[in-house]
Amino acid sequence: MKKTYMAGILLLLVGVVFASGCVSDTAPQEEKTVNVTDLKVVSEGYGLYSVSGKITALKDYGYLEMHLNWYDSEGNLLYENPLAWNTNNAKTGQTIKFKAEDYIDTGKPARVEILIYGTPFGGSESDLIYNNTIKV
User: Fold this and answer.
1) pLDDT classification of 30: cutoffs 50, 70, 90
2) Which SS3 state, helix, strand or coil, does residue 107 take?
3) pTM for the whole thing?
4) Which of 2, 95, 107, 97 is nearest to 40 (CA)?
5) Among residues 6, 48, 64, 123, which is most buried (max CB within 10 A)?
6) Which H/E stretch holds residue 7?
7) CA 62 → CA 35, 94, 119, distances in Å?
8) Closest of 2, 133, 116, 105 to residue 64, by C-alpha
């Protein structure tokens, strides 16, 4: 009886280990299509904040668009800018400097979420090509 019980537990453990190996995170990651560097957030004073940096396209884009979402220290959304910055005809390997400014009058931002889309009026997950949140 004890041997059967132990064999059952051992078989169950082997099954769990095997199943976890089948769903491991070895699937290929989505290909990165833009490289964003030198990100900087600056308080310009009187509620004006800017986000600046460089975007390098790793493939040709007819259009790139940046959305900014500003949050306070409690995670409350203070301001949403669905068209903070955009450009046309970004070519592979081309580095583009950007600066986007927003006036926040409803509180003090603690972090900003930067979303870059490869289509006009982006907003769907399928069009999102870059997502990063940085502290203010």
Assistant:
1) low
2) coil
3) 0.76
4) 97
5) 64
6) helix 2-22
7) 16, 13, 8
8) 116
